[in-house]
Amino acid sequence: MRSINLDMDALRSFVTGMDAGSFAQAADRLGRSTSAVSAQLKKLEDQAGTVLLRRAGRGLVLTEAGEALLSYARRLLSLNDEAVSALRSAQLEGWVRLGLQEDFGETILPQVLGRFARAHPKVRIEGRIARNSELKAKIATGQLDLALAWDDGLEKAERIAALRLCWLAGAGEAAPLREAGEPVPLVALEAPCLLRQIACDHLDKQGLAWRIAFVSPSLGGLWAATAAGLGIALRTAVGRPATVTVLDPAPHGLPALPSLGLVLHRAEGSANPLTDHLAAIIRQAVQEALQPG
């Protein structure tokens, strides 16, 4: 069977279109016309020998083959970009400073550090795991170059994902630990905490009484208290330990929850090849972490 080399530009248009939500937006991001992007997608389907997208209403959705290719395309582009960056920037030296929410310390940070170190072996990276308020403060004062944080809507930043919020309880518990009519026991991080505030606001809107059953300065403490059955927590499922399970809100009388944006903050004047590449690696790692399975 003759080997087929998939077109990298076409793969990039394909991935950018899916990430942007439309291929018209992808064309803007890539500096191409919409017709040029459409031609690339047609070329990609010809190379793949199958249909990758189908119409659904006014938009396009992935076929089963398209879903499979999207996963491979992300990996191919990531490796391509890493190789190009390594060749072009092998002699770059210096350091960059990155901050992340604690939720992503185990799921995303190892991938980010590994890829960046391979591409820039002479560059030092300083990492900080912290809460939203601290990350934004250090970005504002120039103590961090990049920060991956929750979108509180107060500052303008690059939105790179949206994560579904969920109620969480100990994996061994069949229901939240409260008797009928008793306040909902909450396990939360110390204030100020955006997710703590969202939990309280949604319970208030549904007319449910609540009490803070356990407060922790760290995510590890929050997971431990939740797993022990001291109460329920509001978080995303990213980084959730096996001892904690996601609750279906309706059977437990809990309010449905929205998604929460994940944004990438940049310090003013921090744009350079190093921070640009680190930002690209972060975007890729986030997308991979959010893929099903």
Automatic annotation (TrEMBL):
InterPro entries: LTTR, LysR_HTH_N, LysR_subst-bd, WH-like_DNA-bd_sf, WH_DNA-bd_sf. GO terms for molecular function: DNA binding; DNA-binding transcription factor activity. Residues 6-63 form the HTH lysR-type domain. Pfam families: HTH_1, LysR_substrate. Keywords: DNA-binding, Transcription, Transcription regulation. It comes from the Bacteria. SUPFAM superfamilies: Periplasmic binding protein-like II, Winged helix' DNA-binding domain. The keyword Transcription applies. Belongs to the LysR transcriptional regulatory family. Transcriptional regulator of the ttuABCDE tartrate utilization operon. This is HTH-type transcriptional regulator TtuA.
